[in-house]
Amino acid sequence: MVDDKNNDNIDIFIVEDDFTLADEIKISLEKYGYKSERSSNLENITEEALLLNPKLILMDVNLPFRDGFQWCSEIRRFLKVPIIFISSRNTDMDIIMSINMGGDDYIIKPFSIQVLIAKVQALFRRAYSYNNSSSPSIKSLREVTLNMADNTVMYHGNIIELSKNEFKIMNILMSKAGTVVSRDEIMDILWSTDEFIGENTLTVNINRLRSRLKSIGVENFIKTKKGQGYIIDEY
């Protein structure tokens, strides 16, 4: 049984375009205590994975929009959770590709549910027995995801890398979503190094960050509260 200490997250994310098989896997996993969800949008698997923040992913290789190897490579930029590929493709090249793209195991269809469960249990033991921190910290709000590991922002599959100051501004505003953060508070956070951050410099950084967000389709995310500071609404 899995000790699910964080009820906000799921244990296993199932990415499989055969929904009948996916539901069968989900039911079997839940019998063993694994809180599971199957993908409901095969066009935006990375975004769904980030929202669910699973502890393990079961990834089919043959998917309708991009194959599982490509999704794995993209997900690996944000999450370091174990990924098990499941596929009817059984050549050595497919298995080698799965390893090269960041997969942790490979199960060939058709497979026994008992074999799947055994592999899942083994990966959970290896990944979480000695380390409870399963993935780099991420913040997600209104489909905008901030990755703490590499200072990137993703929105609808578009990714930009932020500067040090842009990242700090996004981090504090997303951490306090729904609350106005004063300019003084932001400047105190930015001025944690020897670099001087004044009123004009902060304004330039905020405007540049807004422009960068707009370039990936995020508009009106950071709002100005005149005489108070800045806010990102929760909804």
UniProtKB/TrEMBL annotation:
<dbReference type="GO" id="GO:0032993">
    <property type="term" value="C:protein-DNA complex"/>
</dbReference>
<dbReference type="InterPro" id="IPR001789">
    <property type="entry name" value="Sig_transdc_resp-reg_receiver"/>
</dbReference>
<dbReference type="InterPro" id="IPR039420">
    <property type="entry name" value="WalR-like"/>
</dbReference>
<feature type="DNA-binding region" description="OmpR/PhoB-type">
    <location>
        <begin position="136"/>
        <end position="234"/>
    </location>
</feature>
<dbReference type="InterPro" id="IPR016032">
    <property type="entry name" value="Sig_transdc_resp-reg_C-effctor"/>
</dbReference>
<dbReference type="GO" id="GO:0000976">
    <property type="term" value="F:transcription cis-regulatory region binding"/>
</dbReference>
<dbReference type="Pfam" id="PF00072">
    <property type="entry name" value="Response_reg"/>
</dbReference>
<feature type="domain" description="Response regulatory">
    <location>
        <begin position="11"/>
        <end position="124"/>
    </location>
</feature>
<protein>
    <recommendedName>
        <fullName>Stage 0 sporulation protein A homolog</fullName>
    </recommendedName>
</protein>
<keyword id="KW-0804">Transcription</keyword>
<comment type="function">
    <text>May play the central regulatory role in sporulation. It may be an element of the effector pathway responsible for the activation of sporulation genes in response to nutritional stress. Spo0A may act in concert with spo0H (a sigma factor) to control the expression of some genes that are critical to the sporulation process.</text>
</comment>
<feature type="domain" description="OmpR/PhoB-type">
    <location>
        <begin position="136"/>
        <end position="234"/>
    </location>
</feature>
<dbReference type="GO" id="GO:0005829">
    <property type="term" value="C:cytosol"/>
</dbReference>
<keyword id="KW-0597">Phosphoprotein</keyword>
<keyword id="KW-0805">Transcription regulation</keyword>
<dbReference type="GO" id="GO:0006355">
    <property type="term" value="P:regulation of DNA-templated transcription"/>
</dbReference>
<dbReference type="InterPro" id="IPR011006">
    <property type="entry name" value="CheY-like_superfamily"/>
</dbReference>
<dbReference type="InterPro" id="IPR001867">
    <property type="entry name" value="OmpR/PhoB-type_DNA-bd"/>
</dbReference>
<dbReference type="GO" id="GO:0000156">
    <property type="term" value="F:phosphorelay response regulator activity"/>
</dbReference>
<dbReference type="Pfam" id="PF00486">
    <property type="entry name" value="Trans_reg_C"/>
</dbReference>
<keyword id="KW-0238">DNA-binding</keyword>
<feature type="modified residue" description="4-aspartylphosphate">
    <location>
        <position position="60"/>
    </location>
</feature>
<dbReference type="InterPro" id="IPR036388">
    <property type="entry name" value="WH-like_DNA-bd_sf"/>
</dbReference>
